[in-house]
Amino acid sequence: MIAAAALFVTALFGAAVANAAEVPLAERKSGYEFMARETRAMQDDDTANPAMFSVLDGETLWQRKDGAVAKSCADCHDDARTSMKGVAARYPAFDAALGRPIDLEQRVNVCRAEKQQATPFAFESKELLALAAYIGNQSRGLPIDIADDERTRPFLQTGREMFIQRQGQLNLSCAQCHDDNWGQKLAGAPIPQGHPTGYPIYRLDWQTLGSLQRRLRNCLFGMRAVSYPYGASELVDLELYLMWRARGMPVETPAVRP
Amino acid sequence: MARALINVPAKAKRGEVIEIKTMISHTMETGFRPDSTGRPIPRDIISELVCKYNGEEIFRAELFPAIAANPFLTFFTVATESGTLGFEWTGDNGFSASESVNITVE
After folding, report:
1. Residue A25 and residue A198: Cα distance in Å, rounded?
2. pLDDT tens-digit profile of A29-59?
3. Residue A209, min C-alpha distance to chain B (Å)
4. Is B18 helix (H, G, I), strand (E, B) or coil?
5. In which residue ranges of chain A is pLDDT below 70?
6. Cα A223 to the center of its chain, rounded Å
7. pLDDT at residue B35, rounded to an integer
8. Could you give the percent of chain A with pLDDT greater than 90?
9. Active site members of A
10. Which CATH number is A28-40+144-257 given?
11. CB atoms A56 and B3 under 8 Å
12. Contact by Cβ (8 Å): A160, A85
């Protein structure tokens, strides 16, 4: 009896998964296209985009000597405008030492800890976001290019499973909104397809810059699901899957979102 | 030091109406929000922006707690002569920032 019930549940779940049709590649749209004209204008004009303050801060931080060895990012990587071009479009990327993918913020902190011998920045700190925005800005307009190979595949799979897994008290999956019902409204706001093309973003709701992990935690909170702590492998796997899902779309960093 | 971004056309014709866009980094803390312990966070806002065109005041704005972080203000003026547009923001806790841009009028 229990086995039969379990089988029935599996069949139902299987059906639910089959229904969650992925957005066809040609129909993918950035969150930008769901925004009001005024919000788009903010993002389009670098003198009206408040995230540019963080990009400028990031530029200063890039040159600042720090840590026990008194090295700056520029001491190893030179001019970010050339060395960091296209880098953010490849993140999260597999880190051989850790044996798993890490996102751009984590990469900055690994560099800080190992190369600069400095204290890693806290997640969502002004400094970490500024560096991520500055590095991300160097890839603006370049296509997102996530490695899909035998090293990343298991993590892509975990991320995808998390995306289609119903969770939380509302029993919702990410896919139910962002694959099945994009373009519809949720409490008056349009549901985008959930492509992380412009992170870190300046979200008008936050009145500040925030990372993709902050956005994901926000979504999980809204679904009344477990919010994983910053840096949790679950969040990074989901980030990896979302970036892969947005492969080929141009990077907008730093984007503005409502 | 707060960062400010100013967008003014570098060149303009005499008598032309030009748009001036200004933005400054500031949290614009309203004074009404509680922190994680429930105590109100003290108010910290920019209260005034003054713009001077070659020393002559052409625009003044008063700002209040309901204005969003990183205040973005745009306004227009008539390009009369080449010179400098000076901007000065003042606010709570002795906040003061200034910026200037040059304009060529032909």
Report:
1. 18
2. 999 999 999 999 999 999 999 999 999 999 9
3. 11
4. strand
5. 1-20
6. 18
7. 92
8. 89
9. 219
10. 1.10.760.10
11. yes
12. no
Do the first three CATH levels of A28-40+144-257 and A52-137 match, i.e. the same topology? yes
Among the partner-chain residues A48, A204, A208, the one whose CB lies closest to the CB of B23 is: A48
Domain ranges of chain A: 28-40+144-257, 52-137
Domain boundaries, given as residue ranges, for chain B: 1-27+41-89
Best residue of A55, A207, A208, A209 to probe chain B, by most B CBs closer than 10 Å: A207
| A52-137 has CATH 1.20.59.10 classification | no
CB contacts under 8 A, A 208-227 vs B, are 208
Decide if B5 and A53 are in contact by the 8 Å CB cutoff.
Answer: yes
Instruction: Taking residues B33-54, report their average pLDDT.
Output: 95
Picking from B3, B21, B27, the nearest residue to A48 by CB comes out as B21
Say which amino acid occupies A116. Q
ipTM over 0.85? The verdict is: yes
CATH topology of domain B1-27+41-89: Immunoglobulin-like (2.60.40)
Q: What is the dihedral of CA B55, B59, B64, B69, to 10 degrees?
A: -80
Across the range B67-82, mean pLDDT stands at 95
CB A228 within 8 A of CB A16: no
What is the model's pLDDT at position A10? 44
- Output the CA torsion A51→A258→A168→A18 (10° steps): -100
